[in-house]
């Protein structure tokens, strides 16, 4: 098994999944700040990718036996990044390198760009310290007010 190829595959599948579902993922309480990167929680990323990438389900039991810290697993797999920022980078790189894509042989070339107008909501990063989800602390704040 080629680990670098698996990492690249996971990165692409995660970004595609995030891009297709960002409208509801931005509203979920799964966002954390881990090692300076704002992203969905490691458990959420791993659970999503275990469905999208069959090779991951083959090696995940071994990985978990070696280290059961989901944040560390996500770092090792190269997934500790803010998907919004990565999608913007991909869009810019794609537009700079691929000015057009042909959809039909002999057809007119049409410019293709990702729609990056939908942005993740700016949830408070103060609630996302130490790789904890924002949902738990938001609940604690509500209970403190009562």
Describe this structure in words.
- With 146 residues, the protein is mainly α.
- It has helices spanning 3-25, 42-52, 54-66, 70-76, 83-97, 134-145; strands at 31-34, 37-40.
- The protein has a two-stranded antiparallel ribbon.
- A hairpin with a 2-residue loop joins strand 1 and strand 2.
Instruction: Tally the beta strands.
Output: 2
Mean pLDDT: 74
Percentage of residues in DSSP E strands: 5-15%
What about the largest sheet?
A: 2 strands, antiparallel
Please give the alpha-carbon distance between the first and last residues.
Answer: 54 Å
Helix content: 55-70%
User: Which stretches are poorly predicted, pLDDT < 50 over at least 5 residues?
Assistant: 99-104, 106-130
Shape: globular
Number of helices: 6
Q: Structural class of the helices, strands and pairings? A: mainly alpha
Radius of gyration of CA atoms, rounded to a whole number: 18 Å
Walk across the major sheet and give the strand order.
1-2
What is the element string, with H for helices and E for strands?
A: HEEHHHHH
Topology:
Blueprint: H1 3-25, E1 31-34, E2 37-40, H2 42-52, H3 54-66, H4 70-76, H5 83-97, H6 134-145
Antiparallel strand pairs: 1-2
């Amino acid at each position: 098994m080629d680990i670098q190829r698996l990492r690249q595959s996971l990165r692409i599948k995660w970004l595609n999944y995030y891009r297709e579902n960002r409208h509801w993922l931005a509203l979920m309480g799964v966002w954390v700040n881990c090692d300076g990167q704002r992203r969905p929680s490691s458990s959420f990323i791993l659970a999503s990718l275990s469905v999208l990438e069959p090779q991951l389900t083959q090696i995940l039991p071994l990985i978990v036996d070696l280290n059961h810290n989901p944040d560390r697993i996500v770092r090792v797999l190269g997934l500790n990044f803010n998907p919004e920022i990565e999608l913007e980078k991909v869009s810019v790189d794609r537009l700079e390198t691929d000015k057009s894509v042909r959809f039909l042989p002999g057809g007119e070339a049409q410019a293709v760009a990702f729609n990056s107008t939908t942005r993740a909501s700016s949830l408070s990063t103060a609630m996302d310290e130490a790789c904890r989800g924002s949902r738990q602390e938001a609940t604690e704040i509500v209970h403190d007010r009562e």
